[in-house]
# Entry
Amino acid sequence: MVKDIALLLARAVVGGGIAAHGAQKAFGAFEGPGPKGAAKYMDGLGLRPGGFYGSAAAWTELTAGTLIVLGLGGPLGPSMLMSTMTVANVTVHMKNGFFASKNGIEFPTLYLSAALAFAGGGYGRLSLDERLGLAKLRTHTITGLILAGGIGAALAILAQREAPEQKPAQQSQAQTNGTRAPEPEPSRN
# Structure
């Protein structure tokens, strides 16, 4: 029972955290940017149209978090979380190194690791999958296919990414000074 309680608490933190992150984009909750801010940010990352990608990220995070908290859908929620965090790592965090203090990959990679653990290890007895008899449907093949689908979705999104735009003022100032324009503002995606 200790393992099941630990899994429930971990699911609440991981799933609740990513669902709240999605709510920031979808609704502007928790001082988030809301749909317009998320769209503008996605445009700046080269994910265009920004409204589509902002909405997709928001609802994927909300859905993934909800499934993980409830312990429902087997590896589906973790796969969705892995997809969004892979895109976030590549588009925002990788250029900043590892540590979160420099907006690096540390934080999204922790989400990725937790998602992988839930996908591979299950949600425990205190989950809707267990209560509804769905846990028995979790096989290595199904889990592998769903995780591959999540990574495939991330790769498809990244393949459609356009070159991120520089702000006009930054471009002209950089040309005048002969220096490189500063990177766009980092986000805790």
Residues 170-182 have pLDDT under 50 and may be disordered. The first helix runs from residue 2 to 27. The chain has one domain: 2-163.
